[in-house]
Write the structure tokens for this entry.
Amino acid sequence: MMTSHRLALISSLLTGAAISSFAFHLPTTTTCRQPSLTNNNHNHHHHHQQRSQSVTLHQYPISITENAPRDTITLTDWAINYGIGLGDTFQLTAAQQDDAIHDDVYTITSQPIAPSTPILSIPSNVILTGSMARQELGSQTFGAEDSLLLSDHQPFYLFLKVLTEYELGDQSPWYYWLNSLPRYYSNGASMTDFCFGCLPPYAAGLALAEKKRYKQYVEALSNISFLSEESKQSEEETKWAFNVVFTRYMELPGGDVALVPMADYLNHGAEPNVDISYDEEGNCYVYSMTEVGAGEPLVFSYGDSTNPSNLLARYGFLDESSEATFCKYVIENPTFEMFNLGYPNSMYFYNDGGISNEVWDVLLYELLKVSPEEQQHFYQAHMSGDEGTKASYHDQYFAQTYKSITSHVDYILNELDELGIGLETQIAQGQDKKRHPRLPLIMRHNEFVKGTFDNVRQNLDNMMPDILSLCVCLCNKNTIQGTSLEEQQQAFYQAHMSGDEATKQYYHDEYFPQTLAVLQTHVDYLVNELDDLSESSWRKTFRKDQHRHPRLPL
């Protein structure tokens, strides 16, 4: 909700009053044409009726090949002509991306600004929404909607709207904005089979899901009559339109989705410094939330910053600013209880090697499925805030939970190591970034994830002495017939010395899960150490220095 001060400020802006704190540039002279946006829905519906019979592309279409230049020069003039308010400090700038060919264009502030400084105002008639597109495009889209089998169709209507405006060429009111947008993308929909093979399983699955959604959208176009067959059959056009929508749309308060010109140039940040809001008429406003220094990017959150793999798959960039990342532990068909325990949104591995409590909770709950009564008791303790009971279960099954986490971390690290070796081989064979321009970004993603998991593995290794002592001390939590830890320990030792195998067997049976977990953890630790030695020291040294180290084979 906006304050009365902001509403008054906005009202004055839209009526053209002079406001010293919100000084927008006024339109002067410009080379941009200004097709009317008035009654735009009606006019475009008329276009669709005509084009469903005969499709004619206009004289100046937008070039969307991956290496085509973006025209951001005339974008500001276009924005001013269409009533978009640009704050005095608003500035577009560019930075080179990983492929060293394509620039990332984003917003910065040209001067230091204080909190609540106006950045942008975008009138509703410039904003493209899914509901508006559905109403405009009409019943001709219903067959495509039914074929999608998706619960949320709003992004699909934006996809159709972008293709529609693209076909209008320079006759589209949004021509100059569309012509400023990226042609090259690195998200899942743009990746190749080679790219998918370079990602670890979780990230590859997310990227493939984006590719699948793109293919569903393209298949649904067969039910659309008002687009040309050329556009519907063009992978270049359909993929570009899909990427425009899924890398730039914003979710509106009422559940709709929207493409908001100029606001879509705000980059992602784990710690946003701007706020985006809408009034009852659908106008959009961007204000600063914090102090921002001159030259600093203006950013808001695109989504969960603790899941860089998801941001890579959806948007095509890597966010390395977050202090934590999703632990990549995937459960098929998770239950309602698991979501309440924190799966997956709170299951973090921290960059310093820390592990969130939710990781321990979810994995313990999953381990307790062999004992439904204990599982339910643990869950009820969680829901009621009974931390004492939860701690008791965590102590009792710490070794098993530890082993489950360690096995998962080792699995991911092994996958990343194998991918790293494979990528080095591909590069050695000439599969470099010229042929696969997304490769540097994918390699950075893998190294970022690996760095976090390496730190977590080191943290787990440091826990080893605690596990050994805890498994012995568990007797304090489960005293047998009222005996103490020392009494049980002494009884076991006396049974061993006297040859009382029955008593020894009793203790082994009672604490078999804990003893087994300690042994398995120890073996896994040594195997991991040997794997690391084999892959790093031996392989590299043997390749380079076999003659200098004759004892190495032995």
In short: The chain has 22 helices and 13 strands.
